UniProtKB/TrEMBL annotation:
<dbReference type="InterPro" id="IPR010376">
    <property type="entry name" value="GBBH-like_N"/>
</dbReference>
<dbReference type="GO" id="GO:0046872">
    <property type="term" value="F:metal ion binding"/>
</dbReference>
<protein>
    <submittedName>
        <fullName>DUF971 domain-containing protein</fullName>
    </submittedName>
</protein>
<dbReference type="Pfam" id="PF06155">
    <property type="entry name" value="GBBH-like_N"/>
</dbReference>
<dbReference type="InterPro" id="IPR038492">
    <property type="entry name" value="GBBH-like_N_sf"/>
</dbReference>
<keyword id="KW-0479">Metal-binding</keyword>
<keyword id="KW-0408">Iron</keyword>
<feature type="domain" description="Gamma-butyrobetaine hydroxylase-like N-terminal">
    <location>
        <begin position="10"/>
        <end position="94"/>
    </location>
</feature>
Length: 124
């Protein structure tokens, strides 16, 4: 990985809804917890093939409970919906930052096409 790919800062916001990531090359991103949750690199979300991809609705209010380093190449994020199986490598975090607008737009379109929304279901 080139020097621009190494993170210089990984910081969780006080409200636990945004992960701030800065890289040596100067790139910096504020990645919403919802976005990270629905783009988790775990097999639970991504499946084992593109056709197995899961589109998760109701994650607008999800929070990140923990950010744990994994070696010198990734972090493991634990979310308040108990998902914690994705390892976010430095290159994947950078990719998520660079592609945030396009990926999030695709996510919203996929939810709409499936009759799903970003808001959690209301309890009655």
């Amino acid at each position: 990985m080139d020097d621009a790919g190494w993170p210089t800062e990984i910081r969780l916001s006080r409200d636990k809804r945004t992960l701030h990531v800065a890289f040596e090359g100067g790139a910096a991103y504020a990645l919403p917890a919802e976005y990270l949750r629905v783009e988790s690199p775990s097999a639970e979300v991504q499946g084992h093939a593109p056709s197995e991809r899961k589109w998760l609705g109701g994650k607008r209010l999800v929070q990140i409970l923990a950010v744990e380093p994994v070696g010198n190449y990734a972090v493991k994020l634990s979310f308040d919906d108990l998902h914690d199986t994705g390892l976010f490598t430095w290159s994947y975090l950078r990719e998520l930052g660079e592609e945030h607008a396009a990926r999030f737009s695709r996510y919203e379109a996929e939810l709409a096409s499936r009759g799903l929304g970003r808001d959690p279901a209301r309890r009655t």
